[in-house]
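Justification of resources, computational component.

The compute hours requested in this renewal are based largely on the per-chain cost of generating structure records like the one below. Each record pairs the submitted sequence with a full structure-token output. That output is archived, and it is also reused by downstream analysis tasks.
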Amino acid sequence: MYYRVIVNKFNSGFEQALATKNFGRVESCHNDSYNANEAVTKAKRGRHCFDDFAVIYTEEKLKKGECYPDLVYQLHSDNNRKHCIELCSRVLAGLAEGKDLSKFDYIVSHPVDEFGQDVSYDDWMAKFTCEAQLLLEERDKAEQEKARLFNNFVIDLIKNIPVGKYIDLENTSVNAKSPFLWSLVHFKKFIEALSGFKEKAFNKTGVDLMHQMVLKKSVNIIFDVLCSGEDSEFASLLNGDLKPADLRNEYISGYAVFLESLGLALASAIEVSSVLSGEFDELQFRSFVCKMAGVERYLNSDCWQNRCVRAERLVKNNDSVNLTAAVFRREGDLQLTEKMIEIENRYGFNFSV
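The structure output for this chain reads:
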């Protein structure tokens, strides 16, 4: 429970504070800190208010109107100390970034300790630097853990698909003779396109468990379909009849542009497959994947010319990804985005959509 309490003469020291009438008296009780602090603000606006207030938190049940001087003094000191550590951490972080101390004038011009006593800047830093550094280290560790959310999620997906062993988790690119098809970076781009979440946004806001489950099911279905069938280059790869280098020589599917384009094309399939019932319809989504898997994937196929293959060279950029995804969406009877239509028109592909 949060309590609004009187802390008159706190800055005068322990003995004088405790000798002050009403020090530590509970004025109001609240379930959260926001309402407690609002009560402090409102009380200070009173015309006849001459008291100093603070907000404390304790699991002990305190009674309104009763005084708890020792407890309040200790808890208020602890709160002030935490505040000093937080301010010190800002100064340390700023100095580490090469900022001038003048940027923190509001902190360092009149430093006070946890008991409200004026101290020199050097003494203040000496007192709180150790704990402030620990605070920064804990935050840095938490940020690093958060930054790995998307990476760990993608690696878990890779472990559960048939061609996972052909994805290079170490290198950012794949050369012509590589035993891998795609890199981790390529697969991340595929998941970003499929989910609509960029890695940074995924790490910052997170994705709820329901969306994660849908993504996992979608990825499993996609590669189950791609790796099935006698004519599948992926089935030949898994059977040992085709090497990654040979697959790249013959098929668009050996390149990152295929992966990202397919993800972009199937993003709307996930939405459509979840519209009617509100739940993810795996059979409907599989039907979309099967339609798109029917597109001829040979590099020399006419459908890729001037989209992702130009002058007999494979091209991957924003335009080629959208142009390639447009082919998959048409095959899956899915609506093209305005961006896809605009890019197709720009490149001379005129279709009635």
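The mean pLDDT is 90. The chain has 15 helices and seven strands.
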